Amino acid sequence: MPEQKTPLTRRKLLSMIGQVAGGSVMYQAMTSLGHAAESSYTGPIQLGKAKPGASVVVLGAGLAGMVAAVELRNAGYTVTVLEYQNRAGGRAWTLRGGDSFTELDGTTQTVGFAKGNYLNPGPWRVPHNHHAMMDLYRRYGIQLDVFNQVNHNAYVHSSKAFGGKPQRFRHVSTDFRGHVSELLAKATNQGALDAVIRKEDAEKLLAALKSYGALDKEYRYAASLHTSEYRGYDIDPGGGLMDRAKASQPIALHDVLQSNLWSQIGAGNLTEFHSTIFQPHGGMDMLPKALAKDLGQAIQYNARVTQIAQNDKAVTVSYTRNGAPQQVQADWCVCTIPASILAQMDIQVGDTMRAGIEALPYGSSMKIGLEFKRRFWEEDERIYGGITNTDLPIQQISYPSNDYMSAGPAVLLGAYAFENTNAYRFSSLTPKERIRLAVEYGSQIHPQYKQEFRNGVSVAWHRMGWIQGCFGAWNDTLREQHYDNMAQIDNRLVLAGEHISFIPAWQEGAVLSSLNAVQRLHAKAAAL
């Protein structure tokens, strides 16, 4: 698979805005693009009591569906949940050794990971400001680990710069910040900013730049022990009669700029990636398992919905379960089936809701988990968690943020292509070929790959038959035309899920959408 220039995605654009203009401007841009990740959640909802005998059918046992089912059950509704798969959780999914799944073309993968190892092929991290998710973890007693998003000892990599040799994040980050600080200090000292900055502010700015960029007393960014406190030393400070500390040599400004590696160091500025970030201990499916246990027999698995009909009195859902056709009737319906699947079904909704369902495309995503014989990234390179970014089609390598320094096999995320052509190109290949390429590309960053590789697994979301895509890919035009229509209650049915939110592709969006939907549905039911 030949390398291809990666397009400017919304995430890259936001990262670049954060680099140049700072967090507040970036957050405004995130809001306009529908990616603002700060949650509006303020606490558990209180629905009040349902009318005697009231019933609801919930379609889908992902997070949105199960949260809706729990809240409505707690309010007194009789709840039935229909789930297409033989498990709960939807995209909040964890793959472990022995698990198997089948793609659209019938290709089946069986996971070969050692006991205790796993891959989260869908959501894999939860920001601290996703308040509804954090509250659910607290309520259900889910143990959390800290997810290491930004590791200054991980790499940034360009196949076209520095002879293809990966660079430490801390080197590029410190050098970029230092050189830019020196340039701004020169402009300030030479009066180039007199028209926009007061004299007393210029003095404070110079002091700030000196500290921020690790500049010397002449406001120069140059090799020194002080600079090395930020970017690392060639010889670290020691004790006794050990060799004295030796300063490292910064990368020249020209080389930093031309490498384009500066574009890979700003992701941590996005609010969704601010520390602290979490992951459920043992896998992302810990919460879905707890919710499913709470709901018990209310969930019917292996239930494939074929038709949704409704009138002024009730909703009737036709489905097949283990090959047998069945029906369930309820007063109300919360439908969390992804629009990518719902558009292919026989559903009785108004023209405006149908138009939105049919118009909403689903974004691409592909992940590859690679298991290695040992944690060579820790043992050989002192990388403990975090992410290496690269211009290669694999785009990211993420190192596990748990079980540090443990012996035996370990799994890292060997590729994560999101919302771009790399995801589609990888998805067009067989799982075996995807994994082979991930090892081939990854070995350009970690030469240990080929010798240490054990096995791998790949999930291409457009090839998952139960969703056929990763997330609702809204843009401004589509939102203006269809979003409100899709979010409205259509007679006795309401849609919920990350695709009915302004935080697409995040679990928080699914939960907030669900909570808002059940509150509005309950209010309508109470008013009748």
SSE topology sketch:
Blueprint: H1 10-21, H2 23-32, E1 55-59, H3 63-74, E2 78-82, E3 95-96, E4 100-102, E5 108-110, E6 118-119, E7 126-127, H4 131-139, E8 144-147, E9 155-157, E10 167-168, H5 169-189, H6 199-212, H7 225-231, H8 253-259, E11 277-280, H9 286-295, E12 299-300, E13 303-310, E14 315-321, E15 324-330, E16 332-335, H10 339-342, E17 346-347, H11 351-359, E18 362-363, E19 365-372, H12 376-379, E20 387-390, E21 396-398, E22 410-418, H13 421-427, H14 431-442, H15 449-452, E23 453-460, E24 471-472, H16 476-487, E25 493-495, H17 507-527
Parallel strand pairs: 1-2, 1-16, 2-12, 9-20, 13-17, 16-25
Antiparallel strand pairs: 3-6, 4-5, 7-11, 8-11, 9-10, 13-14, 14-15, 18-24, 19-22, 19-23, 20-21
Helical content (DSSP H or I, runs of 4+)? 25-40%
Please describe the biggest sheet, giving its number of strands, its sense, and whether it closes into a barrel. Answer: 5 strands, parallel
Shape: globular
Structural class: alpha/beta
Helix count equals 17
Count of beta strands: 25
- As a whole number of angstroms, the C-alpha radius of gyration is 26 Å
- Beta-strand portion reads 15-25%
Mean pLDDT: 91
Q: Which stretches are poorly predicted, pLDDT < 50 over at least 5 residues?
A: 2-8, 13-36
Looking at how many chains there are and whether they match, the oligomeric state comes to single chain
Q: Span between N and C termini?
A: 60 Å
Strand order within the widest sheet?
12-2-1-16-25
